[in-house]
């Protein structure tokens, strides 16, 4: 016996077998049992959702005579009488399927309607099924209208279309319309399990999930893909084989991309794309995978218990969900979707993918240089900008000076993204579940910080006093003060070596890459702080001061010459330089001259601000994490967790 493809072999033969369209089944079943039948039905929905199948079952229900030949109209056709068998086999004389895509002219419709005057040959009803009805020409529609409005009582019309917008209103108004929905991935997955068990084909669940997802809501596509996969994999449906066949992206790549984004690790992102290219995996598939991951992460962030623990990706998703705050997850989802649409416009697929991933990195709503540029308060010293508890401030200053406290990849990405959202969106709300609430609430409340026991500061005696009494030189930027302090006493490195390594320094997550400023840079940074504090410069001139690094000062020259460096050519315009020069001359009481070149900037007021913020953030998170009350709550409620992004330094 010849092989019958799965989609045909497992075409549902009764309403009970039809999956995923319960609303249509119920309406039709009720109409059939109550004998309240409309004369024309219109089924809409994308390909492969069951329009033709429903039509055939309806035709059988109307014409079935039962196994004993005595039955009437029924919602449960027997499947064994000659009418049922003939309709299933597509050879019933009174059931006519017309494909309007290939018979769209008025002649074909006229021929069909000419036959309508004759009573059914063997059955109770003639059923005319016109598929893709929107393809009919206008004259063909017009020819049909009269019969469609008042057909003989033995004639039923079933119209099907994937595009109801193109069906004339005059036709729509004469039909009872049913919308067949695309199948949920889970529904397709379960159906594939049933089919493969019936076929005795061994399979792996993740492989079926891939096929179900690849079918995009179409059961026929799912079964066709499964047929193809069985042939491809040689009988055993393994995940690896199906992945290869679909060109689907290994979940691991998607996970690595999310992790790299969470860590702001541009290097890892680019490396992952290289791997994808090497394996010939599609960029569109990667973005689809990312959108899928982001969607599931978002669900998990909002409703932690929503995930089915038996889901094959449950563990992975539970690990990923806390990595990004809810707002960034939304952003990731949105960029992945839009990026996929513009892949076709990119010079090549992979450069398009790189750009989309880098955009995710660039648009991460972190308080970067661009953000502080529009908020004058951000230019103030750390004490004002991020008032964390005093020991924390002291510790963060210490760290800022000794370790830089910001990773290499964070800084360039933030600095190169001038169009990034300037103000960080609101942090995600605490999870609405009762289990998470007890922890989320005290964590967000400022009292949580006041009852906390701060981590031991590096200089227990001096630090709180320094922050508390607000010394007169508090206008100076902290790094300037640190510089002057350390020049009085021992060098910072010497002092650190004399102490046991502090846990604060050891577990600081960021790499050290902003060292203490050299003397010229320290003077420059102090000048910038004064300029900004006195609001002497605005707009792009302010941005120039904020982003520039000083590479040297020639005090011997007349006027004094400052060598500055910026990363963006656009900041180097002569007009900006002249205005900054004028502001500095006024501030310092004598003429100053600026020379600006373009190059890599490793130290600037903007970078120090970013470093200080991320340090304050890390410190605040550490304080919350070490807080005894929070720890008690976490221990008491197993599903409680600290909502990522909800901790903010005071
Ligand atoms: Zn029957």
TrEMBL record:
Pfam families: DNA_pol3_delta2, DNA_pol3_gamma3, DNA_pol3_tau_5, DNAX_ATPase_lid. Belongs to the DnaX/STICHEL family. Residues 419-431 have a biased composition (Pro residues). NCBIfam families: dnaX_nterm, PRK07994.1. It catalyses: DNA(n) + a 2'-deoxyribonucleoside 5'-triphosphate = DNA(n+1) + diphosphate. Its EC number is 2.7.7.7. One of its GO terms (biological process) is DNA-templated DNA replication. One of its GO terms (cellular component) is DNA polymerase III complex. The gene is dnaX. DNA polymerase III is a complex, multichain enzyme responsible for most of the replicative synthesis in bacteria. This DNA polymerase also exhibits 3' to 5' exonuclease activity. GO terms for molecular function: ATP binding; DNA binding; DNA-directed DNA polymerase activity; metal ion binding. InterPro entries: AAA+_ATPase, DNA_pol3_clamp-load_cplx_C, DNA_pol_III_gamma-3, DNA_pol_III_sug/sutau_N, DNA_pol_III_tau_dom-5, DNA_Rep/Repair_Clamp_Loader, HLD_clamp_pol_III_gamma_tau, P-loop_NTPase. Residues 407-515 are annotated as: Disordered. The lineage of its organism: Bacteria, Pseudomonadati, Pseudomonadota, Betaproteobacteria, Burkholderiales. Transmembrane segments: none annotated. It is an enzyme of class 2 (transferase). It comes from the Bacteria. Residues 37-199 form the AAA+ ATPase domain. Keywords: ATP-binding, DNA replication, DNA-directed DNA polymerase, Metal-binding, Nucleotide-binding, Nucleotidyltransferase, Transferase, Zinc. DNA polymerase III contains a core (composed of alpha, epsilon and theta chains) that associates with a tau subunit. This core dimerizes to form the POLIII' complex. PolIII' associates with the gamma complex (composed of gamma, delta, delta', psi and chi chains) and with the beta chain to form the complete DNA polymerase III complex. Residues 432-453, 460-471 have a biased composition (Low complexity). This is DNA polymerase III subunit gamma/tau.
